[in-house]
Structures are given as structure tokens and as C-alpha cells.
Design brief:
By secondary structure, the protein is an all-alpha fold. The chain has four helices and no strands.
């Protein structure tokens, strides 16, 4: 499978586990904690598979960027957090940076 596809799926799973943390109530609730743990382990495993063929600095930055941007966007659209103009600007810059890193990296 294409290594960039692995990074994208890993980043999407990072969004899942990051957003799921709140529902664990400090890991005191079993099933939300199991979900978060499974998403976290799978996300890291996919990233590890991807960096066999990609530069670690770029792959890690894209993975984190997808997680940050995704968690912020879901928290605004589904959880009622406020999207200020400044927050929108910086999320947009983050997305541009993720795309730039991907475009400037070796193709695999």
C-alpha cells in the first residue's frame, strides 16, 4: 500500500483517539478507553509502516498535522467549540503546511 495512504489513515485514527480521550474520563470508563487504546496503537503502527519508505520528519509532521487539524475541525463542527478568525487562519496555515510537506517529499 502507498506509504502516504498509511500516513493519512494513521492521522485520521489520531483524530479519533484524541477526540475519544474526553469520553474516557481519565481512563476510568472501559469501552471508551479500549477504543482510544486501539485507535492509538493502530495509528502508531500505520505510521511505523509508512516510515519504512518515507522520511520520518516529514511523515511525523504530516501525521501530527492531520491529527491537530482534524481534531480542531471536528471539535468545532460536532462539539460546539468556537472557531475564531485567528483559529481559522492558523488551521488553514497548518493545512497548507501539511500539503507543502507532502508535495516536497519523495514520492513513495
Amino acid at each position: 500500500m502507498n506509504s502516504w495512504i498509511l500516513v493519512i489513515f494513521a492521522g485520521l485514527l489520531e483524530v479519533c483517539w484524541a477526540l475519544g480521550l474526553k469520553s474516557t474520563h481519565g481512563f476510568t470508563r472501559l469501552w471508551p478507553s479500549v477504543f482510544v487504546g486501539a485507535a492509538l496503537v493502530t495509528s502508531l503502527w500505520l505510521l511505523a509502516m509508512a516510515v519504512k519508505n518515507l522520511p520520518i520528519g516529514t511523515a511525523y509532521a504530516v501525521w501530527v498535522g492531520i491529527g491537530v487539524a482534524g481534531a480542531a475541525l471536528v471539535s468545532v463542527t460536532a462539539m460546539g467549540e468556537t472557531l475564531t478568525p485567528a483559529r481559522a487562519l492558523f488551521l488553514g496555515l497548518l493545512v497548507v503546511a501539511i500539503i507543502g510537506l507532502k508535495l516536497s517529499s519523495p514520492a513513495h
